[in-house]
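Lab notes, practical 5.
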Amino acid sequence: MEIAVDQIKALRELTGAGVMDCKKALQQTLGDISKAEETLKANGIAKVEGKAGRETLEGVVEAYIHSGGRVGAMVELSCETDFVSRLPEFKELAHSLTMQIAAMGPPYLDHPDIPEGDPRNPEDICLLHQSFIKDESKTIQDLIKELAARVGENIRVRKFTRFALGD
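Output from the prediction step:
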């Protein structure tokens, strides 16, 4: 099947995937953009899982102070290259994470960090498993994986902290 350049361009804008990856996905799905998008996401997530062990020595430290100055948060978001750390999407993710931390106050990053015997729900106390405050259909881990799939690098939250007046 012949795939039009406009279809490739539209899929590329939706997913951020490479031209050849978009063309292959469209060919596999017989030109159906929504199915091709799902195919690319599935492949992208699979690629991300394979990159999870790679070192993340670049990144940004982002800070957020809520209006009124009573609550703030900082996060160290890491990636593999300085090129990715300068992307607007990467910086936006770091900013969204600080807002999430300030709003939700998670004490832990992930399941292994929870002390044994803590009865609280991991979805409430682990940053990576919390629903994103701007889109509750996604978790923080989903956001990180989606960006990692688009940029083709391992991305991870190295550390974070929340500050509140009086705490």
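Observations recorded by the TA: Helices lie at 5-15, 19-28, 33-51, 82-85, 88-104, 122-125, 140-151. The beta strands are 58-65, 71-79, 131-132, 135-139, 156-164.
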